[in-house]
Every structure is written in C-alpha cells, then in structure tokens.
Amino acid sequence: MANAVISLFKPKTLNLINNAVKLSNVLPITGVQNVRSLYSKSTLGIDGFTMQQEKTRMQMHNISDKFREKMNEYSNEDSKSMIFTEDLKNMIHLSESDEDIQLVYNMIKKFNAQNKQVRFGNYVFGPVVMRMLHLYGKHDMAWELFNSPEMDGFFDQVMTYQILLDLLYENGKYDEVLKAVDIVKSRQLEGAKYPRNVVVLALAACYKLNTKESLDYAVKMWQELSEVGHLPMRRATTFAAGLALNQGQPAIALEILVSCRNQNYTTIRNIKVAAFADLGRVEDAIPVLKSILSDDNPGTTVHTFNKDVIEKVKNAVVQLDNPDTSLEFNRIEQMLQKQGHIADTVLDEQLCSEIQRPPMMNNRDRNQGQYQQRYQRNTQNRGKTFPYTQRPGLNDLV
25-29, 117-121, 147-151 — which one is most confidently predicted on average? Predict the structure, then answer.
C-alpha cells in the first residue's frame, strides 16, 4: 500500500497521510450493504430488451413451440443445419425459462463457430445476450461465456462490458468484476483502456469488498487514470474516496475528492465532512456543514447531510472537548435539523444508490433517430443513398 500511496500523492500530502492514523479516531460509516444493480434497467437497455421480447412473442405466438424444436435440432453439434442471425435474435427474445436460456447458449456456441464468411449482417449480439442473462440473473453463464476462448470477439463491446460487470456486481461477485476489468483494460476496445462506466463498476466493486487489497487496487487504478489524464465520473470518485474512508485512510479520501470539479455534490460534501471528523479536524468540517445553510434558497433542491455523518462529527466534537466548538456545532446541528438538512439515510446507502439514465440521453437517442430518418430521405431525393453510421456504442443502448 505504501508504494502505491507514494506514487500517487505529493510529499506534503504524504505527511498528512502519515499523521492521519495518529490524529484520527476513525468511526466507520455504518449502513446496510445492500446488494443490487448499480445501473438502472433503462441505463443498461434492459427495459428496451423486454419490450422487444413482448413484440417477438406476439409475432411468433403460433409458431414459437415449433421454432424451439427446430432450434434444438439445429443447435445440435451433429446437425449440419446452420444457425442464422434471425434465428438467434428471435430465440434470445423468446427466452423465458432455463430451458430457453440453455438453448440460446447452445445456439450462440454454434453460431459463433460457423464460418464467419457467410455472415454478412452487422448485428451485434454481445449487448443483447448480456441483457438476456442480466434479466434472468444468469451471472455464472455470463462469466463463462465472456471468458470462453471460443467466444473471442463476440462480447467485445463497451456496452457489453458494462452489462456484464453490473450483473456480477448485483450478485456480489466483486472479485470477478475486478478480473473482468483487467481483461477489459488489456483489450483496449476502440482505443479505450478505461471506459468510464467500467471504471465506476471497478471502484464500486472495490468499495463493496472493503479490504486493504481492494484499496490497493483502487489507488493503483487512480494512479493509472491520473497518468493518462482520465477524469473519472463523480460516482467513481465517491466510491474510491468512500473506500479510503472505510479503510481508515481519511487523508487519501480527501485527496481523491480534489479531482471532482463540483465540490457541492451531496456525496462529496458528506465524505469530506466525515474525513475531517476522522482526522480530528472539526474546525474544517464545520464550514462545510454551514455552507448548505447559506446556499438554501426557496424553490431549490434541499441539500442534506447523512445522519451517520452528522453523528460522526458529533463524536469528534465530544472528543475534542472544546466548549466553544461544542456550542457552535450544537447550534449548527439544530439549524440543519430544523431546516430539513439531515437526511434519514446513511452514507453507504447514498453512495450505492442506483444510477439512472440521464434524461439528456433519452432526448439524444430520439434526436439521433429523427436525424437518421431525415438524412436518408434527403439522400434518396437526390437519387443517392449513403450509409448512415451512428456514434460508436449508441446503437447498443437500444
């Protein structure tokens, strides 16, 4: 751990870190470690997948049983019949039982083993298969397929990585998440060694593991990100800082928070206050607590602190045993309570809250589709039709 810290922080900061353990009386942030999906279904495209399922089931209602029988026959290793793109697409969207999913598994294996020269379509199966496996909680099968040498290239899409990692995370397979992240880094798909959502899930897994080893991994990743100029998403920042806090390294937590452009986010403020309390620096925590009182304007979102963070500061104030500081903190706490600035949630619950699909993404996808239709109409009117290419990965969100 020491080498990782030395390579990450400046000498002046190292002095702070070395003194952190002496200065701090660390009170762990408490809370229920709920295991659930980190990304919402809409963000992962699972909502859209289930809609397509319903559509396919309606279209194939009268022939679905016969179709299953035929696919069971075709997917047999001894069968000379081929699995076509439409066959696999339909069976994935018809799946509704363990038997169906096993059939899809067999079809995928044969489909990918077929001579690729006869497949002229550009349909990308990786995200769709992972959505099916995520929907039915088949994390073991997903992990097996992803690691299978014979499936090389089949699951190499950034969106596929995100769905797989979220599925592993949801099922508490945090070590597997980190193993998958290392594989993703080695592949550098589309020139990206650190896809943003992959980084979030990697640090989320580290946070859930909450061990010295996971902190070592997180600090090393943070160092690598800094070296390549990668600015992590806010959720990645708070997971890394929260882990450092839980591992009794509040100084590292504070240094990680510096990378966040907006210091006014609720999670950033909460971790910062908790870290100052752990360091025994109540005088630095109090101004942060007071800041949301002055920012409180009618009609705006009420800024809050988690109840366990407030309790942490209160304990630090008691240990400081300074009458003036105690008086000031009690006054601030009463004001926060009266004005509704103390949330009835713990920091862990807030850090692990579900990541929703931003409204701007919904608008962007809709506008993208409208632009595609206009573009094709215009080119057809000129007597020419040019291929339209979406931005990489955007079609995987559908």
Answer: 147-151
